[in-house]
Predict the structure.
Amino acid sequence: MYLKTAGHQKVELEAKTGKSISPKFVGLYREVYGHTNYVIPYEDVSIDILSAKFKALQAEQDNIRKSLASRVPELKAAARRGGQYVRDLLA
C-alpha cells in the first residue's frame, strides 16, 4: 500500500512489501502492479480508508503474489532490453 503525496514530501508506509515511496512512485507502481488500487492520494488519507485498503490488500495477497511472479520476469527482460539499447547507442 502506498500513499500518493502532494509536493516533494516523502511518505513511508510499511505494508507487506515494506517499501517507501516518493510522489513519483505512482507511475512505477502502475508499471509493476498493473494498477493503482492501493495508492491513496495524500488528501484522501483517513483511518477508514487506510483500514479498508489494508484489508483489501490482505484479501488479495495470493493474487498479488501470483501476478508478481509472472510480471517481474517481464519487467526484468524489458530493463535488459533498455540496457542493451543504451549500450548500442554508446558503442
User: Anything to note?
Assistant: Residues 6-20 have pLDDT under 50 and may be disordered. The longest strand covers residues 2-4. The two ends are 41 Å apart (CA to CA).
